[in-house]
UniProtKB/TrEMBL annotation:
<keyword id="KW-0812">Transmembrane</keyword>
<dbReference type="InterPro" id="IPR007401">
    <property type="entry name" value="DUF454"/>
</dbReference>
<keyword id="KW-0472">Membrane</keyword>
<feature type="transmembrane region" description="Helical">
    <location>
        <begin position="71"/>
        <end position="93"/>
    </location>
</feature>
<keyword id="KW-1133">Transmembrane helix</keyword>
<dbReference type="GO" id="GO:0005886">
    <property type="term" value="C:plasma membrane"/>
</dbReference>
<protein>
    <submittedName>
        <fullName>DUF454 domain-containing protein</fullName>
    </submittedName>
</protein>
<feature type="transmembrane region" description="Helical">
    <location>
        <begin position="5"/>
        <end position="25"/>
    </location>
</feature>
<dbReference type="Pfam" id="PF04304">
    <property type="entry name" value="DUF454"/>
</dbReference>
Length: 94
C-alpha cells in the first residue's frame, strides 16, 4: 500500500518537475529530488532510471553524495526567476 503511495508521489513529482523545465516560476530541481526520494522508497527500477538519466542524473547524484545542488542549476533558477520578474514588470507597466 505504501509503495503505491510513494510511486504515485514520485510520478506526480517527476511530472511537475518536467513541467517546471518550460514554466519559469515552477522549480524543477526540488521536484526531481522529491521524485528520486519517492522512487527510492517504491521502485528501484524507476529510481535507477532517474539516477542514470541524462538530464536529471547529475542533480540527483550531487544531492545524494554531497547534499548540494549544482551551481549550474542555481544559476539557471536565478536567471529564470529574474527573467520572469522583468517580463512581469514590463507587462504591468503597459
Amino acid at each position: 500500500m505504501f509503495k503505491i503511495f510513494w510511486l504515485i508521489c514520485g510520478m506526480l513529482s517527476l511530472i511537475i518537475g518536467i513541467i517546471g523545465i518550460v514554466l519559469p516560476l515552477l522549480p524543477t530541481t526540488p521536484f526531481v529530488l522529491l521524485a528520486a526520494a519517492s522512487f527510492a522508497k517504491s521502485s528501484t527500477a524507476f529510481h535507477d532510471y532517474l539516477i542514470n538519466s541524462k538530464y536529471f542524473g547529475t542533480i540527483i547524484k550531487d544531492w545524494q553524495e554531497n547534499r548540494t545542488i549544482p551551481l549550474r542549476a542555481k544559476i539557471a533558477a536565478v536567471l529564470m526567476m529574474s527573467i520572469s520578474i522583468i517580463v512581469s514588470i514590463i507587462y504591468l507597466i503597459k
